[in-house]
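Incident log, support desk, overnight shift.

02:14 A customer reports that sequence design results differ from what the structure should imply. Their input is reproduced verbatim below. On-call engineer (initials T.W.) acknowledged and began investigating.
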């Protein structure tokens, strides 16, 4: 069995990492893969052995009858091949795909997505082809004892942290406000944010700095618990070192297509606080595997990516007080939070290994192959 996999598998992005994980899952269960690369990021990073494997697979010209498209669906048209069965690998963050995404997806034969939230968002946009739930995989062989943490200035604190692109969907304002309000008069606590805005240039870093200063001025507190910003590009191995350097991952996001940093954090033994909306969160139990933040759905607004995030969509809204309570609970109950991290890590290893997800992919591919043989 052989497939062609089309997407930004060497990009420094969530799309890129998801591509790499899918390809690894397919290879793990002996599905042959041809790689057709797209590119959406200017930055170049190092992706270890898996990155090298993907580069080698670019030269694989084995025959295939199935092509998996895992890039933004608005550009699917240019990758559609006559006589080939096309699978749209789609994840999305709001309650409905944008119209140009739905148009691209409907050019395919079926959809693979990761959660019921994703499936509903795809159907709500008018997609009519069959949808199958296949989660995203991750390398579950990675364990905390294999990873050396960085030396950090806040090594004696309880260290909250977050990793995200600086966009409204990731809700940085609520994260900062909740953290500063809750820990105004608390010692030995800190928050470290690994982030970027579009790229890693000085101008974009200044935009982030100015955003943070404005929140500080608006709050007008007497004391501000420390925040550390890291705004540099990291390799995949360095990203795991980053996770390993802290205690609790926090993301009051407005919706996730999946949630790779959440999985990575749990694999590194860290508790997670994350909005219970979309993707991997459907597989976690609140207070058992993770601290899941309650939310309401509100109209999308104040977002710079207006091409895709539009007023006819809804995304999650999380109250500052909800985030404050979660932060305080983890800080005051560190041992109990550590137990959720252990259980969450076990859930990730059980459900999302390359082998487990690869088996699901291979099963569906065999069913597709049977339809070819019956024709």
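02:41 Re-run completed on a clean worker. Output:
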């Amino acid at each position: 069995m052989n497939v062609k996999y089309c997407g930004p598998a060497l990009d420094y992005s969530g799309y890129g990492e998801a591509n790499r994980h899918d390809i690894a899952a397919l290879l793990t269960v002996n599905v042959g893969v041809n790689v057709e690369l797209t590119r959406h990021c200017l930055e170049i990073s190092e992706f270890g052995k898996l990155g090298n494997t993907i580069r080698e697979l670019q030269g694989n010209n084995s025959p295939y009858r199935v092509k998996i498209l895992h890039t933004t669906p608005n550009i699917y048209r240019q990758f559609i091949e006559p006589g080939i069965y096309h699978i749209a690998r789609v994840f999305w963050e709001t309650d409905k795909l944008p119209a140009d995404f739905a148009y691209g997806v409907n050019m395919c034969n079926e959809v693979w997505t990761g959660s019921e939230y994703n499936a509903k968002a795809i159907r709500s946009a008018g997609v009519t082809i069959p949808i199958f739930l296949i989660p995203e995989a991750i390398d579950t062989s990675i364990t905390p004892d294999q990873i050396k943490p960085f030396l950090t200035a806040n090594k004696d604190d309880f260290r909250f942290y977050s990793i995200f692109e600086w966009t409204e969907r990731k809700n940085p304002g609520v994260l900062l406000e909740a953290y500063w309000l809750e820990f105004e008069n608390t010692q030995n606590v800190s928050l470290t944010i690994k982030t970027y805005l579009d790229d890693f240039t000085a101008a974009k870093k200044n935009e982030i700095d100015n955003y943070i200063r404005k929140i500080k001025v608006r709050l007008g507190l007497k004391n501000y618990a420390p925040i550390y910003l890291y705004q540099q590009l990291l390799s995949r191995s360095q990203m795991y070192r980053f996770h390993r350097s802290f205690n609790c991952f926090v993301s009051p996001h407005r919706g996730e297509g999946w949630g790779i940093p959440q999985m990575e954090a749990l694999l590194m033994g860290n508790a997670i606080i994350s909005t219970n909306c979309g993707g991997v969160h459907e597989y976690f139990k609140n207070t058992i595997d993770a601290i899941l933040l309650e939310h309401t759905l509100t109209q999308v607004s104040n977002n710079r990516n207006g091409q895709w995030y539009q007023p006819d969509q809804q995304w999650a809204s999380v109250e500052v007080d909800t985030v404050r309570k979660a932060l305080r609970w983890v800080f005051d109950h560190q041992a109990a939070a550590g137990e959720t991290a252990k259980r969450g890590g076990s859930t990730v290893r059980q459900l999302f290994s390359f082998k487990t997800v690869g088996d699901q992919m291979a099963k569906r591919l065999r069913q597709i192959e049977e339809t070819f043989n019956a024709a």
